[in-house]
């Protein structure tokens, strides 16, 4: 018997039937047009549209392309069609799907996308949810080929087989999860609004458009212009030889750049590894800056006592650490656009230390950090609510699908 662990018991009791994906969809690769064809014409679906949307509407699509009538006719994406990510740097993302739910406008689709044209009977949103389950994802990602990039083909998608209930039960499940997704989207919008509010406040504070007053209602002293390096001490770490197992599996958390804001680390080293490398110990409360990788410029107040590698800069100061973090956060985009043009290169201690900071009195630093931290705490609480909703959805999907 093929039934989910949890279902709408009073309405449905029949088995779910094994259904080849090839009976529901026919697959085609997308448009590869000349460079001057892009940026005008009809909207076309590409990688980010799939990754960023639970479902796709015409107005949500980012790009556009102008092609011949014949090319447009064979490249239409219409209501109920499925879109698959054809290529990705990670096995986790390759083959991910979304569904097109616009009944008024058709879109086109790009070369890094495979379209599944609807030929069978199914609820589109239910099928998108079903394709997100671990059993469906495993069928796709496990067969993905490639070395530096992973790729899926029409052949791989044609080989996928899914267990599906009646159309009536599909509709009921899709409606249920659609309501849950709406709550998640509303929560995401709430977080985005709070982040924009904080960002706006930071700009006004650091431009001194907004100034605080002391406990007696008096103006604070004028801000001083300094190089950041004049008021902080900095150091980076290193990595024990990765092939030497004698350096690892100890009791020292080994913090890498993607983990600067975490409560735990994937790797741990021992004192032998620490003493035989350039890894450096940091304390709880130290300010950390990611120098390399996708999160270059990210900052965090360390929640761990552990060792850092060469991709992290530790900052210590007699000034308010939270204020310095806020300064770096406020200037992050400017730093990246100035020193990491086109996303190439790395930040360094010298770059950070040569930044010009306008520094208020210590008392005003505390006041600024305290007020902005209140907004930050509110954002963290809203993130926790969002995480709870996402975990609820994951748990229900495990129980409501085969």
From TrEMBL:
GO MF annotation terms: DNA binding; endonuclease activity
Limits of the Type I restriction modification DNA specificity domain: 100-196, 222-382
Domain of life: Bacteria
InterPro entries given in the database record: Restrct_endonuc_typeI_TRD, Restrct_endonuc_typeI_TRD_sf, Type-I_RS_S_subunit
Keywords, comma-separated and alphabetical: DNA-binding, Endonuclease, Hydrolase, Nuclease, Restriction system
Coiled coil: none
GO terms classed as biological process: DNA restriction-modification system
Family: Belongs to the type-I restriction system S methylase family.
Protein name (database record): Restriction endonuclease subunit S
Lineage of origin: Bacteria, Bacillati, Bacillota, Bacilli, Bacillales
């Amino acid at each position: 018997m093929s039934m989910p662990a949890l279902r709408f018991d009073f309405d449905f009791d029949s088995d779910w039937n094994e259904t080849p994906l090839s009976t529901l969809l026919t697959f085609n690769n997308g448009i590869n047009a000349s460079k001057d064809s892009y940026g005008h014409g009809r909207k076309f679906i590409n990688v980010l549209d799939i990754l960023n949307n639970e479902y796709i509407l015409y107005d949500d699509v980012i790009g556009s392309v102008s092609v011949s009538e014949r090319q447009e006719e064979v490249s239409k994406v219409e209501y109920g069609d499925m879109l698959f990510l054809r290529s990705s740097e990670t096995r986790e993302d390759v083959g991910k799907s979304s569904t097109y739910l616009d009944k008024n406008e058709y879109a086109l689709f790009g070369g890094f996308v495979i379209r599944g044209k609807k030929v069978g009977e199914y609820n589109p949103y239910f099928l998108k949810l079903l394709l997100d389950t671990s059993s469906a994802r495993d069928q796709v990602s496990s067969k993905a080929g490639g070395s530096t990039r992973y790729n899926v083909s029409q052949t791989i998608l044609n080989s996928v087989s899914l267990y599906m209930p009646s159309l009536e039960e599909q509709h009921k499940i899709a409606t249920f999860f659609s309501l849950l997704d709406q709550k998640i989207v509303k929560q995401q919008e709430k977080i985005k609004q709070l982040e924009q509010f904080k960002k706006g406040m930071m700009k006004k504070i650091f431009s001194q458009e907004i100034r605080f007053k002391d406990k007696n209602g008096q103006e604070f002293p004028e801000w001083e212009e300094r190089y950041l390096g004049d008021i902080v001490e900095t150091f980076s770490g290193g990595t024990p030889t990765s092939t030497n197992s004698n350096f690892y599996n100890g009791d020292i958390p080994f913090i890498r750049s993607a983990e600067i804001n975490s409560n735990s680390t994937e790797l741990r080293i021992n004192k032998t590894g620490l003493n035989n490398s350039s890894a450096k110990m940091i304390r709880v409360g130290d300010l950390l800056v990611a120098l390399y990788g996708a999160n270059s410029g990210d900052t965090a107040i360390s929640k761990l006592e552990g060792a850092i590698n060469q991709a992290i800069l530790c900052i210590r100061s007699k000034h308010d650490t939270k204020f310095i973090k806020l300064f770096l956060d406020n200037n992050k985009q400017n730093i990246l656009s100035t020193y990491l043009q086109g996303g190439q290169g790395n930040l360094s201690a010298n770059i950070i230390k040569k930044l010009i900071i306008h520094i208020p009195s210590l008392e005003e630093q505390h006041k600024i950090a305290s007020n902005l931290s209140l907004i930050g705490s509110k954002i963290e609480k809203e993130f926790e609510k969002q995480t709870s909703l996402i975990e609820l959805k994951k748990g229900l999907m495990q129980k409501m699908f085969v």
